[in-house]
């Protein structure tokens, strides 16, 4: 991302800092709109652990993101890590929900079409059971 600073004569390339994060929050508040921040996981954090689900603390600038977010989800595709599960399993794993309890969202991935579908009730139940068992292991 490129931000212009008041003391610079040309734009400087910088990471997302608390000040721009607060500007994003202000913009969402003033316009009464939804803001979605997509943040990458710091390099090699998930690869070192047995459980491959990203944690809140794995994200770059996680402290600031946690402060201003109402919801935090991590994307988790077990097939990426060659885990023994159908390749279409994909999850949004809930890490924070300011309004209710945390929840996970199972999705059926269709990689060849770069899309997702809502799983049927039976598949959703199987996916939720698999994810809960994986989190406990």
Q: Could you give a short description of this structure?
A:
The chain is of the alpha+beta class. It is built from three helices and six strands; from the N terminus they run ββααββββα.
Question: Can you describe this structure?
Answer:
By secondary structure, the protein is α+β, with helices and mostly antiparallel strands. The protein is 27% helix and 20% strand. The protein has three helices and six strands; from the N terminus they run E-E-H-H-E-E-E-E-H. The strands form two sheets. It has a four-stranded antiparallel sheet with strand order 3-4-5-6, covered by helices on one side. A two-stranded antiparallel ribbon has the order 1-2. A hairpin with an 8-residue loop joins strand 1 and strand 2. The longest helix is centred in the last third of the chain and has 16 residues, at 121-136. The radius of gyration is 18 Å and the shape is globular. Mean pLDDT is 79; it is low at 1-16.
Secondary structure elements and pairings:
Layout: E1 2-3, E2 12-13, H1 18-31, H2 62-68, E3 71-76, E4 89-97, E5 105-110, E6 115-117, H3 121-136
């Amino acid at each position: 991302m490129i931000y212009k600073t008041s003391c610079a004569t040309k734009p400087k390339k910088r990471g997302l800092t608390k000040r721009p994060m607060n500007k994003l929050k202000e913009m969402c508040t003033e316009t009464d709109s939804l803001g979605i921040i997509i943040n990458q996981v710091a390099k090699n954090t998930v690869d070192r652990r047995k459980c491959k689900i990203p944690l809140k603390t794995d994200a770059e600038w996680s402290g600031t993101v946690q402060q201003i977010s109402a919801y935090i989800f991590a994307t988790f595709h077990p097939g990426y890590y060659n885990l023994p599960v159908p390749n279409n399993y994909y999850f949004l794993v809930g890490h924070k929900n300011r309004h209710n309890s945390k929840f996970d969202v199972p999705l059926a991935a269709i990689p060849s079409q770069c899309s997702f579908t809502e799983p049927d009730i039976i598949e959703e139940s199987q996916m939720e059971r698999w994810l809960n068992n994986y989190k406990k292991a």
